[in-house]
Specification:
Blueprint (H helix, E strand, L loop, with lengths): L2 E5 L5 H14 L5 E6 L4 H10 L9 E6 L2 E7 L2
Parallel strand pairs: 1-2
Antiparallel strand pairs: 2-4, 3-4
Length: about 80
Amino acid sequence: MAATTLDLRDVPPADRHPKIHDTFESLASGETLELINDHEPKPLFYEMQAEVASFDADGYEVERRGPGEFVALLPKK
């Protein structure tokens, strides 16, 4: 499965969700958006689940890799 990676740790908070949505929209079906973030993106998961029909919520994964580093996989149906 192909993945596109976004490291959001240096992106201003107000710019993060628009950047995520734009990048996710550009993915083809079956691709995954890998996010590197400074906090667990649980609110983003709920937002994507509620608003983005092509988001595969069942395939969502998140891993804490260290202090201030969370990696989330957002697959596209």
